[in-house]
Amino acid sequence: MASRFPTAVYRHRLARAAELADASGVDALIITPGPDLTYLIGSTAQTFERLSALVVPATGGPVLVVPRLEVASFGESAATELGLTTVPWVDGEDPYALALQHLPGNPQVAVSDSMPAGHLVPLMTATETRPLLATDILRELRMIKDDDEIAALRRAGAAIDRVHARMGEWLRPGRTEAAVAADIAAAIVAEGHTEAAFVIVGSGPNGADPHHEHSDRVITESDVVVIDIGGPVEPGYNSDSTRTYCFTEPRADVARAYAVLEEAQAAAVAAVRPGVTAESVDAAARDHLAAAGLADHFIHRTGHGIGLSVHEEPYIVAGNDVVLAPGMAFSVEPGVYFDGDWGARIEDIVVVTDDGCEPLNLRSHALTRLPTASGEDR
Ligand code: ZN
Ligand code: ZN
Ligand code: ZN
Predict the structure, then answer these.
(1) Does some domain include residue 1?
(2) How far is the CA of 167 from the centre of ligand 2 (A)?
(3) Domain residues for 338?
(4) What 8-state DSSP symbol labels residue 249?
(5) Which residues contact 194 (CB under 8 A, 6 or more apart)?
(6) pLDDT tens readout for residues 18-30
(7) Same domain, 45 and 85
């Protein structure tokens, strides 16, 4: 499988990034390893204490400043095909001065938000200006996914759907959350992801904690279990899907609240179309839950953008008046949480289309009842 897109994709992105930097009055973007660097040149290099940075000036070509011993790690990126000027540096040289050498004096730079403080502080000292966040400049580029990115997100969605479809193989009463999570993590990779980025197995009362990961708690027959899982597929685009499971007929109050949650999630997905705000999608889910008296049990935003990062813009949250446009991809994941008792969440990824949205996950949202098979694990 190709580990990156055709070179022309990155050439276009770099040109647009320079235009946006210019339009923002920024002399250069300084991008250290992380999602912005992957987006711009297809590099998945790591950040170390020695500075590796892509400098994208508002005018003039981009330059890659890289420690000599890290040059090879950029070989997998599009840097060579793009003909990027590479400035290798060796210990004893000042990489910050090298990064700034062709910019005006005291340049206004914008840095990626993954730049470590160990690089940001010396860079600020060298520029004698206060950097801006490149995220604010690259946002409008990275928020709108192109056809290749949407195809990658579709592959990610299908891969995580296959993992959920196999849940009955691993999720059973008598096993610990941790044991189930280990099996799920292996399946996430087996079904086409390059790694399991996160595995949440929240059984019974642990399901009431939206960011519970997993524990040594033994799952019981009467539990409701929240499974929120995802990871990247090549070239780096993430899946993120939550389904909620049970083993026996749910309690009446659980069934009732879950039915409202299902409607709230569907209402939010139905609200997604170009021209509406991100916060209106959040309100669609929230208002539906509130009408059923569940407002206090929905304790997080409705969703987050997804792409090279699991959490990125646009955030589907009250107060975000970003107007949705075709190509934006984000999660729609309302939940209900009852402290010390149970919780549930339904999460799909959707992509905004010309007249609505395309869900990237199978719309199998019912509280899924799995068999309570006894056997080798008991
Ligand atoms: Zn989260
Ligand atoms: Zn999730
Ligand atoms: Zn999510």
Answers:
(1) no
(2) 16
(3) 144-369
(4) P
(5) 231, 232, 233, 234
(6) 999 999 999 999 9
(7) yes
